[in-house]
Fold this sequence. Notes:
The structure holds two protein chains of two kinds.
Chain A: H1 2-28, H2 35-52, H3 58-80, H4 88-108, E1 125-128, E2 131-134, H5 135-157, H6 159-169, H7 171-176, H8 181-203, H9 211-228, H10 233-253, H11 259-273, H12 284-287
Antiparallel strand pairs in A: 1-2
Helix pairs in contact in A: 1-5, 1-8, 1-9, 1-10, 2-3, 2-4, 2-8, 2-9, 3-8, 5-6, 6-8, 9-10, 9-11, 10-11
Chain B: E1 2-7, H1 9-15, H2 23-46, H3 51-77, H4 84-101, H5 106-125, H6 135-154, E2 163-164, H7 172-193, H8 197-207, H9 209-214, H10 219-245, E3 247-248, H11 256-268, H12 274-289, H13 296-311, H14 315-325, E4 326-331
Antiparallel strand pairs in B: 1-4, 2-3
Helix pairs in contact in B: 1-2, 2-7, 3-7, 3-10, 3-11, 3-12, 4-5, 4-6, 4-10, 4-11, 5-10, 8-10, 11-12, 11-13, 11-14, 12-14
Amino acid sequence: MELLVYGIINSITLSLISLGFTLVYSISRVPNFAHGALYVASGYLTWLFLNEFLGIPYLLAILAGVIITSLVGAAIYQFILVRIRGMEISEIIATYAIGLAILEGLRWGGLRGGTFVLPTFFAGSINVLGVSVDYQRLIIVGAGILTFVILYMFTRFTKVGLAFRGIAQDERAAMMLGINSDMTAVLSLAIGSALAGLAAVLLLPLGNIVVEGGYNVLVFAVAVCVIGGLGSWGGVIVASFIIGFAQILTEYFISAHYQMVVALLAIIITLLVKPSGIFGKQKELEERV
Amino acid sequence: MRKERIDRGLKVRTQGIYAITSAREILYLMGPRVLLIAGLLALPFVFELAPYWKKVINIMCAYALLALSFDFLANYVGLVCLGGAFFTGVGGYFAAIFNVELGIPIWISMPLATIVGAGFCTLCLLPCLPLRGVYFAIVTLMYPLLFTRIIEALNILGGTNGMTGVAPFPNAYFENYTIIVVVLVFLFAMRRFVNEDVGLVLRAVKDNDQSVRASGISVTRMRIIGVFIAALLGCFAGAYIAHLYMWAGISLFALDFSIIPIAAVVIGGGGTLVGALIGAFILVPLSEILRAFGTFRIVIYCAILTGFIVFKSEGIMIYLQRKYHQFERWVKV
């Protein structure tokens, strides 16, 4: 029972982490290697607001942190990526470099040690199916499901969301119908970064804000997206449940050190067996050479 | 007004049989190459009185090798490798295993570690080679992190302390000249290689994989060759560093080995091979000067890197080549 409950929590955690990455990739085709950095930066910003401006409500600090992160994401596209759009090598290098700059800059600025902790929303825990789960994890599950529902509604029933899907499916046809490709990409990066920020403020109260967290988040986000099929939404959910449960099982039966090994093994097996990922059917021909 | 660029007459003459007609043509053709070779070979003597900087030369050349490997992989095979540290780590650990555990002398353990390590790296990267796009970047990004974790978790190969007691070089000149000669040999070998038949096919893989496939050539096989060669360079750098520091540890998988070569290639000019060397020769001494800044150096590299990619994507080498071969003038349109 413990495995089931924590498996579900871990899976939703993973899908929260990787939602932003897959959103950006599916819409603007930019692999956002700065994703992990934005995650850490958002947590740090929230911490900063909370501790520098004493008296500011926690909710407001979170809001400010997430909004600033999303602005940073938009700025990254608007000022840097737009100039190298379509050059895959440059895109990868540039986003990776930006991410590294943010992470190592934070490390240099003093982001190390155990002093950077966000408080949990509500202290205490509750029994779920005979397993004691603290409120923060319940909130994560709730927020994760809510985010999915909102995103689903957004991409199905709003004009901007439909434009997103149009660009994701066929950029040229969408442009012909008057959808601004660059504008959509800016928005997608803003939303993707906001999702990274949201994941950060939800997950970081469970641990410290550390720079290494950024690398881990990036690796897991990428793993989930590759296994689910790059740019596929349903794939993200399924893949995060696969990896999430695989991780909990290895942690339970072998050792916690192997979490990343599990992720990499899953990637390699996926690439060998079904390179386009579980749900990447439509782009199968494109991915395989 | 617009800028017009015209090839120098000298350049045109040296392309054909006239290249050997006069001393001037020969000098024009040989000058830059000889300058690079002689300059690099003379470097240890120039810094004879500064032992610290003689050490920097070694590291600089090791990074140059890594940059060369990145440049080859990115601009001739079309695979972006975000984890050059994977190659150095594997090379370094293999060298340490061969030298410490098996007692193989240094002059055999280094080449052996290079070849075995390159084979190992290629094997590890094999699953993502039939695919295009970002998969290679993703997987190479993960490998250095993964191997660090595995070594820490299993406490194998010396665990977090690393493997000590790797045999050193006989003296400082061997240290310097081993790497300098290897860099030069690899540089000119690579320049030749990319214009051979195999190299041309590799470039075709980068530009249009479907047409390569249509010609009945296996894209995966060509990429295996490309990755193996790039891994050779990286693993040699790793093995060399292990012997240089007499130690192989998880810092061989450090981020520096991944990011500095990328920055060096972007600054030096991607696709020129020499540019990778020049970039490393600029960045590594710079990083020694900035040593006091700690991890802030990585921020500086990244800023330079992004700046160059966005605003000056051709890089130094291509700029210099243009100035050397062409003259520019403003003409009225």
